Amino acid sequence: MTATDAAGSTITPCLSCGTKNRVPQAGAGRLRCARCHADLPWLVDADDRSFDAAVVRSSLPVLVDIWAAWCGPCRAVAPIVEQLAVEHAGRLKVVKVDADRSPRVSASHGVTGIPTLLFYDGGAERDRLVGAPPAARLREWVRSAMQEASSAA
Q1: Which of 80, 84, 103, 102 is nearest to 93 (CA)?
Q2: Which end of the chain, N or C, is surrounded by fewer C-beta atoms within 10 Å?
Q3: Are 26 and 2 in contact, with CB atoms under 8 Å apart?
Q4: Are 66 and 114 within 8 A, CB to CB?
């Protein structure tokens, strides 16, 4: 779905027209294709330095996946998390944080097990899920959190 260019920008192809779009780590509003203006999945990586800009300052609700490369359950959840970015394009931002490379994010959130999934809305953590739930449970958790976020707005 996504790739990273030499400058470190995330490149995401539009699901409607195929145009490759640069995806910023941070920004306001919805991501749209430069050519056809369809909503794009917003899936980026963040670390200790970029977490606040990518997550806390987001105008969209954010699903944060705190993971590690050596973690089997993290690898099992990753495709579902990435698919959620596609399914909720224009309404949800997905941010992946490597726990090994971002110890301050893990410590500040009291992460003791991975994967840890955080749901942020309005700059604050609203809910969390620890472990690798089945795809249906994860989808329902995100749907419910998004519903609560939209009703609170």
Answers
A1: 84
A2: C
A3: no
A4: yes
pTM metric for this prediction: 0.92
Q: Decide: 26 and 54 in contact? Cβ < 8 Å.
A: yes
Q: Are 84 and 137 in contact (CB under 8 A)?
A: no
Task: Identify whether 17 is a catalytic site residue.
Answer: no
**Is residue 74 among the annotated active site residues?**
yes
Within its chain, how far is the Cα of 12 from the centroid?
14
Write down the catalytic residue from 14, 33, 36, 71: 71
Q: Is the bond into 115 cis (omega within 30 degrees of 0)?
A: yes
Pick the CATH number of 41-152 from 2.60.40.1120, 3.40.1280.10, 3.40.30.10, 3.40.190.80: 3.40.30.10
Q: What is the pLDDT of residues 78-95, one digit of tens each?
A: 999 999 999 999 999 999
Active-site position among 14, 17, 36, 74: 74
What is each CA distance from 98 to 18, 64, 106, in whole angstroms? Answer: 29, 11, 9
